[in-house]
Fold each of these.
Amino acid sequence: MNSLISKTFLTVKKENRPVLLTYTVAGDNTKKKSLEILKSISNYADICELGFPHNTPIADGGQIQTSAYRAIKNGIKINDVFSIAKNFKKIKKNKPIILMGYFNMIYQYNENKFLEKCKKSKVDGLIVVDLPYPENKNFASKCKKKGINFIQLVSPTTSKIRLKKIIKDSHDMIYYISMLSTTGGKLKVSPKKILEKYNKIKKQNKSKNVVIGFGITEKTIQSLKKADGLVVGSAICKEISRSIEKRQNAVTNVTNIVKRLKNKIQ
Amino acid sequence: MKLKKKIPLIDQHDRYGFWGGKFGGSYIPETLKKPVEDLTREFSKLRNNKKFLKKRDYYFKNYIGSPTSFVKLENLSNHLGGAQIWAKVVSEANGGAHKIYNATVHALICKAMGKKYIVGDTGAGYAGKMLSMAAKKFGLKCKIFMGAKDIKRQKPNCDAMRKNGAEIVPVYSGSQTLVDAVSECMRYWVSNCDTTHMCVGSTVGPNIFVKICGWSTAQISRELKIQIKQEFKKIPKKIKLINCVGGGSSAYGFWSEFIDFNKSQIELIGVEAGGPKKSKLHAAPLSRNAKIGILHGAASYVCQNNEGQINDTESISAGLDYPGVSPIHCFLKDTKRARYTYATDEEALKAHVMVTKFEKLNPSLEPSHAFAEAIKIAPQLSKDTIIIVNSCGDAKKDRDILRERLGKNK
């Protein structure tokens, strides 16, 4: 796949640093605000993940849950998520955007309609938290046909045989979950251990871009910078919550965090 | 979509774990794939292991107290006229409800897998109480996830859990009821699946949990089949098995031996929680025609909005207050083997009052929903019709709610 996602990895590799991926929830805390945040942080982030919130998120920790509930309370609908993505891509057409969420939302929207809409909104990739391999095979191949990257997740519990199969079926990017945790947990495994497992994944197929996520903050990001890419989500959602609580400008505050994260991996 | 004969319903799924091609499955995060696969392998080994079965039967008999009695509700039947009403008094089981079967089996599996920690969710508090009992019995450390709202309304069961040494983790997210407790319990398992075993409190969740729970509660109908034969010499011509349905674990356990029978001989009736009469909210995805959705790792009929956000539910009965339902009940609904209906809070309360007035039986608010249906249909049925209600829980836990709703005398 000669996708925008793989191009981004190629370009960034030349700068000798990992790709920085951010995660924010669409509609957090309003539709307008979340688009502003997205536009602003994308000056520093290389790939933006945009969550479509679900009210029963079984793999998310407190920070992202709070963001998701806030967005839903403020009336975010799936079509709004698409319009945020579309508006974002109008201005930042070379910045990959990945939608992330739970399968029920896609199921209710209708798989095919959802993917059609993704394509129209210029969405580059999809992460579906609760649609693991091999159950996701059919959906992943539908994504591929539409030119959308289906991003497979791999975790510390993924067995060797499974890993092989998943990598074989993966598209341009693989997401490695750093530890046994929901999103936003404290990094309870040493960076060295995480990178050991990461290298095992890389060894299977060097051409696949593997990013690491879960537990990555300003404190921990530097220690993992050997990876192809690093995802920061909960730390950003937390900052949005904090800014709202302190009545400060969330756009500025979040952008500053992303700027600092970027500096740490230069 | 068709039911197969002579194969337990829990095993009638395809290789991806779907019943009828569309209900169930395992929609789980990657991290849980391995623990779920490990558990699946272990369970399929254990259920064929004679030693394990012997152990299970030993604890079912000597710890849970099988068989629970099967009694005719003579006064209630005479009062209503029409069909004979009988009850399978599952609330006699140790702890006061059917949840003890699943809890005991999970504790035994946890031991067999060499894990020392066990976690579980609870709504009415029975699943939690039973798991805490089983954990204590088998020397396991136990954590129970429970919605903050449920902790308040089911205090007697919370006291019991704490007394058994379990830690209750209050869940404040969402509606603070069972749905949130299950989510939080799954999240905890995601983070601790290397050392901890998870027990899902009903026939819901990823495929394997539906199977383990159904396999455990099936004891109820094994006993009942023998008891019916003893009582009537042979299986009568017209039987109606009425059971409340929240997640659906007691209903499956009550019905499993009878699913192969013709429905004109043995009708299966599931009663969901219709919620307060005046409220739009309910917990009746089957009988009020909710759409299929994915909740807690499985596809089933789910109370949800058009977007796929899970709806709030409302019911006087914490044990039925859940937006989803077991995939096996969805399968039974679509194959038309079982019929599903609902009772409102008010109807359940009325049924509770009537049953306790006429009989030495104290059904909790959950089976009171089933009694409401029995009371409704009995007068129109012939004398040779045998209605059997699964009285699957004891009302001790509902003390505070009953006092509030019915006045001081109750």
Note: DSSP finds eleven helices and nine strands in chain A.
Amino acid sequence: MNIHNDINNDIKFLAKSEIRLKILNEIYKKPNNVRGIVKKTKITYSSVSSNIGKLEKNNHITKIDNKYHINPMSEVYLKTLMDFKTSMDIVSDYETFWNKHNLNQLSINSVKRITDLKDSQLIETTPVDIYKTHNAIKNQIMSSKNVKAIFPYLHPEYPGLIEMVLKNEGSAELIVPQSIFRELILRIDEKIRKDSMRNHKLQIYSYKEDLNLYLTLCDGNMSLGLFKTDGSFDQNRILISDNPDAYRWAKDLFQHVKCEVKK
Amino acid sequence: MTSKDVKNELTEEFSGIKYILTSGMRSRLLLAIYENPKKLDELRGELHKPSATILHGLKELENINLVRKVQKSYELTSNGFLLTANMIKLIENWYSINKDKSFWNNHDLSGIPDELLKSIYLLKDAEYVNSTTSDLSNAFNTYIKLLSTAEKLKIILPIYSENHFRHLIELLKGKKLRNLELIISEEIYHSIRNNDIFSQEILESDKVQITCVEKSLKIFLTCSDEFVSLSLFFKDGHYDDAQILIAKDKNAQKWALNLAKKYNGGEKDEISTI
């Protein structure tokens, strides 16, 4: 992919000066004059004044009635640039979660919307609490009515947990690899399983190939786990979140994998 | 806090994006190996730079764990992949806006929620159509022509326009259009209600579903299976019927359906995936 030259220069013009970005952000929040921006940002008058001139010259802001206003296009530029910054922050904040992990099962759209995960919490096991990640997910499932999950492996407690959700008149939609499909089904109480399937309260999809992703959606909570690039599941880290954006992100990813299964 | 402290704080806050986006070599290297790992000679041929420059850039990217060398090829690490995919999104977003500068820069964008503005790259294949002094109705006529191809329509309609209503009624009377979902403000709803013909032919039609929203709307969005179109208001509050964006690809359709969903509060799975 080639970066078009003028786009490249536009991006560079804003990205290379943190002062310009700060000023533009202030004007975006509220149109202001030079003195007002100095007061808000604590940047020196001469620096604000000279950068305002550059921003105006490059058609990012317009002076109307003694106040500078951001132009609509630059508002989108600023938002997308800040969005890219957030994606970089997410990569570095959860560095241990992503690093040397297999991301093949994430859809490209999930990757491009990674900023939806910005308020997530990284749960890591510790030597004194080696089941911390498992227990966090277990607690989410136990307190939920509606569960959607991608289980790439069968934990002995899963059938019981799903059974409990169904007993409490909840519903479960699961995607599992073919290799554990039968085992999972057989371990759920037969009567509960058959009744739930008949009432569409239990749906299980079998995926022909291995799944490289662990995902749960429990009422408003999501959790995400990954496999390492060596092929083993990383039981020591999960990302969890109750943020609606993260939940929607997980829901869309679940939908994407479900479509892959149906294909 | 002194001005030096402010400068240091800002430098730290934005150091990441500055490091990646202001170096032509670093960003070009990331883009070059995004699809496939490449060897040094392939990179040299593609970037037209000497080995020393390329190796220096690769070393910098290896040091911050975005690139790794496997045998003789350079590839993105998982962190590098996440970052580069989002850098491509940034570039495509800027490209989409830049391509139709006069459309985006002259209008009020407040009717488009932030998350949709941030994924404007999905409109990168949209076509900008505007009216000219020799054809004042070019945008409108293009729109009406497209409408006639639709079997299902979802429209966020922010204006009371007899012209538009007449065309919609004609389509509702025909066999092709099977379903019309209108998202309108209460004000527009009452105006339609006050017109006997429009009220009967549109509001009472079996083919029409109406969603009323309290606030006035600032976007004119149409989604069908075949196309999406978008027109906007000027910053002074007047509707601009002379400029329209039209797209016929799946990405634009997803973008538009998600935008429509923001207004009708729908939660259907099939339209939730951008």
Note: Chain A touches chain B through 60 residues (CB under 8 Å).
